[in-house]
Amino acid sequence: MKRANYFNIEPELMTYLIDQEALIKQKVEASFGVTIWELVKLRASQLNQCAYCLAMHSAQALDYGENINRIIALSAWQDTPLYNDKERAALALCEKLTLSQSIDDDFYLALAELFDQRSLVTLTVAINAINSWNRIVKMFKPTVEFNER
Fold first, then answer.
1. Whole-angstrom Cα distance, residue 56 to residue 1?
2. Contacts by residues 86-89 (CB-CB < 8 Å, ≥ 24 positions apart)
3. In 3D, which of 57, 43, 53 has the Cα closest to residue 139?
4. Are 55 and 144 in contact (CB under 8 A)?
5. Sign of the C-alpha dihedral, residues 77, 149, 28, 124?
6. CA angle 73, 75, 79 (to 5 degrees)
7. What's the rounded Cα separation, in Å, for the pair 66 and 76?
8. pLDDT number for residue 141
9. Under a CB-based contact definition with an 8 Å cutoff, are residues 34 and 136 in contact?
10. Can you tell me the distance from the alpha carbon of 7 to that of 75, in angstroms, rounded to the nearest whole number?
11. How far apart are CA 35 and CA 74, in angstroms?
12. Longest Cα pair distance anywhere in the chain, in angstroms?
């Protein structure tokens, strides 16, 4: 079933979200780097079963120099040594926020040991943004295109 073309119907709203992504990218580059950002986008998209976003962000992660093995292993990040402590903390936060789990004080303090307050705000907004995109895409189902590499 062909669904609404959300970019054509509400370009102003979509432009707002794209501008938000550009601002998040600036903040991410200045704080914790695009690698964590791309891993978080991929993990949220896995949890939300958003094939369109998985295709897009896998390609972007590779373009940023991410290792294919880390992309493949992402759904089992807790059971592989491929991710450092900061990445693990970001992925754990991504899972908690994506799955609407509470953030207790101990978890917050553990995050605060790895990320400064500005980075925690940026990371939280970035996780919120990818979840928003996932939900928009799940609603309107644009064509998924995986690029062969």
1. 22
2. 86/32, 86/36, 86/114, 86/115, 87/35, 87/36, 87/39, 89/114, 89/115
3. 53
4. yes
5. negative
6. 65
7. 16
8. 92
9. no
10. 30
11. 13
12. 48
| Residue with token string 């062909």 | 2
Report yes or no: 90 and 34 within 8 Å, Cβ to Cβ: no
Q: What is the 3-state secondary structure (H, E, C) of 89-126?
A: HHHHHHHHHHCCCCCCHHHHHHHHHHCCHHHHHHHHHH
pLDDT above 70 as % of the chain:
98
Q: Are 24 and 122 in contact (CB under 8 A)?
A: yes
Tokens of 81: 């040594």
User: pTM (2 decimals)?
Assistant: 0.94
Amino acid of residue 67: N
Distances (CA, A) of 137 to 20, 24, 49, 53, 118: 17, 19, 10, 8, 29
Look-up: residue for tokens 């400064």? 116
- 27-37 tens-digit pLDDT: 999 999 999 99
